[in-house]
């Protein structure tokens, strides 16, 4: 596609700049007279102009470039003090055509500083998550115990990155400036294209209690065993991305818009307490230093195992928790060509693994692994690693072979998940009955675990490998990934988890699409009002419809694989995705991208009417009697005449038959000689092909239908129709979306069939996300449901009776006397009780990244 700005440059060269400038607008050509609207207006007028970096076909151009950052990191975990101390050496290579006088580095932990933009702009606290207030007074003023405890933590502990030194390769100090969650390093000499520079940063920070503070990393404390589980992400100063489309991507980290990063190699040494087990991005380089001989034997066995093998058993994990061993061990990991690095460490970890074979000369064998505490058993050992392998099997069919040597699932919290190269942090655990001590897990926990592992391992494909800009376009990783996650659900088992875990996506998104409180999908991440439906479910639904209804699986799957392959280890933009899908499928999809991604229109199409016809023979001997019969069937007899006949009243003509004449025996449908002559002249005047067509129609006896459709929601879509005939048979017809190209509001479709229709149903398989199905059938259907009965009067509160109830102890459940009554309202931080400052808020995810509607495994 060709961009609008390219057309302007042509116009300048042709000498009519004023005309071009006067005609150009952000939304290109618009109709100003009448109510015509072009839903098929080409999207290239809004997309960036193709260039040598990004082509009009959606592929990387011959001069495409991206920067590179290689890291050597030494980090020490102070488990008792909940603190990290580290230093890193970064080699930054400037592959751009630009000379850089400074570099930007991300300091994501600064989001927890008291004066950060994120902290200063927090509004209502709900369980540690940040949620915009809905108003003042009784509607917006609220505070949970968890929110109160969170604020107390910030009062007691100073968070954020403590920069201790920034130096060049020779150890000379480099000037730097911290700007919220970013740091600018000023170079002593500008960095020319094709050149590299190395610098060093020493830093430290206090690790947050993730359960109370929220976020994507931190630690979890287990009260029963007085142990901790650490999961560290966004933990080191990382190079901000420098791109051809935005320059430096240094928008402040506010918590929702995630990360835009550069690829590179990592060499990371992690020093932890001696009883800890470490999971990390990359491959372990020194197993002999940190694992027992038996554990190393099991690890080698797991590489070719077809089911999970314990490297650290549940019993060994329990012993590690009790260990009194002092000292430390250093785990060394290396990772090649990754955009990030994360790790987790604990003396609680069970560790299992199995091999995954794939058709890839670069990476034929992958080690799938899971790390989890005994509190996650027996759920995790049964499903986590199997779900890791399943994800790679499914996603590779739609993109490319898994590109890394390991794929890991780590249990770091009780719900939600987060993704990094080769490692993911996932939730979902069983529950223990407080009275019996018996451990059980619900269906929701089982399928929640499988789903979240699929979702987060899937993110290793998108965006950890297909490196989209999460800070700007969340849908490019969350939406694409949620789409593939649902594919993987149904390849795990039919009816995965039941209706609640894997519903029909087009049906789940309609309520959001008709709501007022929404923004287009193409909205910057931190400005999205309803993040789950907008970033996850709506784009996932759109892609599902594109695959199953608009393009079909063959065209869609080919185009999607082409996109993934083109942009593997590169940084695509939305325009690259849109253009590739059109280029590889050969189908104009501009109407689809514009409607689903750039507008807040919804799908609501109605069948307004259907009319039936047959072809007239024009022969008066045939048509006149038919017309008489039809007139009698359609004529409404006057009620007075009916009552006259019922009363036995005789008309005058009945009483005096002599009053009858020619017109009592003949009507306008009587065939005359003139009619016969006119018919003969008509047949004689027809061309041979016209006469043949008429005779063929008389022979076939087809029924002709004109069906009227109205687009009430604004979003044009194909028309999937189910035609049901009088003989009980049915036919499915898909009318292409282009039927709306001349009039996007109202269209009439002609259907010719050899059998009489009795009904037409629009979208019978619920595939186009039609928001109002009450007008999708003709004739209209009576909707059946069930009505619950209620008592005429509801019970009322008896205050006197309630006062006689003895108070139960919160600890034992025993009743207590009135002396303890004043403590009844007390609660502990984190119990989920609400300080009585206003109405209790709804539950919210712990880091402000809400669960997507109809997406069973939300990413954190």
TrEMBL record:
UniProt keyword Signal, yes or no: yes
Pfam families in the cross-refs: Peptidase_M1
Residues in Peptidase M1 membrane alanine aminopeptidase domain copies: 386-596
Region of interest (Disordered), residue spans: 806-860
Enzyme category, top tier: hydrolase
Signal peptide annotation: 1-26
EC number: 3.4.11.-
Protein name per its UniProtKB record: M1 family metallopeptidase
Species assigned in the record: Rhodocista pekingensis
């Amino acid at each position: 596609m060709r961009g609008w700005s390219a057309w302007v440059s042509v116009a300048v060269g042709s000498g009519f700049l004023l005309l071009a400038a006067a005609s150009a607008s952000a939304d290109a050509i618009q109709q100003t007279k009448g109510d015509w609207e072009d839903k098929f207006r080409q999207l290239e007028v809004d997309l960036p102009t193709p260039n040598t970096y990004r082509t009009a076909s959606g592929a990387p151009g011959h001069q495409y470039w991206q920067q590179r950052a290689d890291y050597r990191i030494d980090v020490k975990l102070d488990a008792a003090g909940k603190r990290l101390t580290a230093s890193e050496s970064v080699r930054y290579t400037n592959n751009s055509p630009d000379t850089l006088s400074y570099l930007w580095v991300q300091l994501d932990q600064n989001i927890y500083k008291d004066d950060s933009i994120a902290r200063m702009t927090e509004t209502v606290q709900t369980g540690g998550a940040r949620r915009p207030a809905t108003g003042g007074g009784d509607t917006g003023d609220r505070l949970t115990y968890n929110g109160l405890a969170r604020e107390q933590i910030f009062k007691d502990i100073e968070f954020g990155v403590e920069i201790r030194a920034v130096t060049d390769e020779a150890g000379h100090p480099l000037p730097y400036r911290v700007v919220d969650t970013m740091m600018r390093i000023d170079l002593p000499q500008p960095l020319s294209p094709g050149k590299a520079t190395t610098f060093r940063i020493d830093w430290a920070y206090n690790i947050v209690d993730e359960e109370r503070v929220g976020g994507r990393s931190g630690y979890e404390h287990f009260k029963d065993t007085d142990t901790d589980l650490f999961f560290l992400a966004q933990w080191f100063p990382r190079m901000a991305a420098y791109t051809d489309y935005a320059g430096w991507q240094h928008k402040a980290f506010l918590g929702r818009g995630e990360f835009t990063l550069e690829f590179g190699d990592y060499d990371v040494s992690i020093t932890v307490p001696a009883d800890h087990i470490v999971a990390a991005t990359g491959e372990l380089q020194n197993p002999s230093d940190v694992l027992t001989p038996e554990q190393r034997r099991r690890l080698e066995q797991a590489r070719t195992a077809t089911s999970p093998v314990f490297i650290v058993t549940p019993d060994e994990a329990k012993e590690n928790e009790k260990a009194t061993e002092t000292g430390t061990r250093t785990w060394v990991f290396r990772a090649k060509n990754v955009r990030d690095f994360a790790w987790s460490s604990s003396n609680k970890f069970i560790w299992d693994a199995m091999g995954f074979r794939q058709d890839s000369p670069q990476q034929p064998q992958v080690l799938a692994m899971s790390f989890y505490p005994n509190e996650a058993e027996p759920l995790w050992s049964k499903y986590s690693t199997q779900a890791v392998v399943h994800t790679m099997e499914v996603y590779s069919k739609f993109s490319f072979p898994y590109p890394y040597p390991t794929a890991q699932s780590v249990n770091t919290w009780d719900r939600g998940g987060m993704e990094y190269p080769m490692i993911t942090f996932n939730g979902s655990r069983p529950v223990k009955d407080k009275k019996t001590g018996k451990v059980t897990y619900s269906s929701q926990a089982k399928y929640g675990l499988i789903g979240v592992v699929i979702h987060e391992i899937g993110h290793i494909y998108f965006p950890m490998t297909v490196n989209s800009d999460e800070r700007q376009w969340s849908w490019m990783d969350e939406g694409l990934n949620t789409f593939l996650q649902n594919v993987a659900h149904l390849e795990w088992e039919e009816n995965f988890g039941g209706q609640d875990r894997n519903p029909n996506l087009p049906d789940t998104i309609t309520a959001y699409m008709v709501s007022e409180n929404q923004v287009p999908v193409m909205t910057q991440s931190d400005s999205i009002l309803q993040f789950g439906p907008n970033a996850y479910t709506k784009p996932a639904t759109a892609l599902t419809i594109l695959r199953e209804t608009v393009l079909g699986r063959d065209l869609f799957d080919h185009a999607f694989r082409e996109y993934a392959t083109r942009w593997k280890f590169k940084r695509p933009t939305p325009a690259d995705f849109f253009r590739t899908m059109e280029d590889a499928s050969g189908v104009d999809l501009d109407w689809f991208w514009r409607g689903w991604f750039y507008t807040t229109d919804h799908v609501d199409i109605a069948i307004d009417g259907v009319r039936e016809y047959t072809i007239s023979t024009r022969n008066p001997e045939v048509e006149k009697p038919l017309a008489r019969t039809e007139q009698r069937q359609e004529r409404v007899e006057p009620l007075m005449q009916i009552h006259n006949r019922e009363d036995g009243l005789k008309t005058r003509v009945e009483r005096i038959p002599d009053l009858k004449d020619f017109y009592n025996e003949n009507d306008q449908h009587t065939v005359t000689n003139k009619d016969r002559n006119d018919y003969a002249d008509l047949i004689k005047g027809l061309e041979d092909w016209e006469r043949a067509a008429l005779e063929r129609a008389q022979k076939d006896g087809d029924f002709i239908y004109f069906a009227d459709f109205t687009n009430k929601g604004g979003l044009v879509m194909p028309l999937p129709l189910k035609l049901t005939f009088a003989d009980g048979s049915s036919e499915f017809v898909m009318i292409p979306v282009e039927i709306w190209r001349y009039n996007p509001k109202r269209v009439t479709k002609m259907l010719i069939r050899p059998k009489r229709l009795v009904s037409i149903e629009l979208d019978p398989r619920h595939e186009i996300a039609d928001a109002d199905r009450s007008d999708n059938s003709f004739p209209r259907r009576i909707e059946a449901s069930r009505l619950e009965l209620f008592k005429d009067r509801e019970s009322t509160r008896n205050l006197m009776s309630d006062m006689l109830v003895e108070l139960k102890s919160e600890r034992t459940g025993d009743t207590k006397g009135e002396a303890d009554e004043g403590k009844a309202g007390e609660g502990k931080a984190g119990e989920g009780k609400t300080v009585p400052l206003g109405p209790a808020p709804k539950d919210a995810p712990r880091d402000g990244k809400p669960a997507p509607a109809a997406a069973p495994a939300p990413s954190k």
